[in-house]
Amino acid sequence: MNFEILIPITLFVCIVVAIKVVVESRFKRRLAETNTSEDLIRAMLAADEQSRRVSALKWGIVLTLVGVAFGIIDLVNLSSDAPATWGLLIAAAGAGMLGFHAISNRKS
Q1: Model confidence at 93: pLDDT above 80
Q2: Spatial separation of the C-alpha atoms in residues 58 and 104, rounded to whole Å
Q3: Which of 92, 94, 96, 99 makes the best surface tag, with the fewest CB within 10 Å?
């Protein structure tokens, strides 16, 4: 497998994450400098924390189902280039997203 292709992809992801961190930190600093009300800042931090929890739940469900799909692929002895392998992985990721949607709607 050609791992050389992963270098530019990883570089792109790192740049995007670095830009996101810088923009968020500047935004929070400007909020603090403008003497915004404490209630607004607390509400924003609470919303950010809730968003992180929901994101962790979503990716936990999706990655668990993708792991189960890899287990099924190994049990059935599918090859990596078989269409059924890709279909099973994509279906597992989709089922994870739908499961997250059902759980989040039930909680709301």
Answers
A1: yes
A2: 9
A3: 94
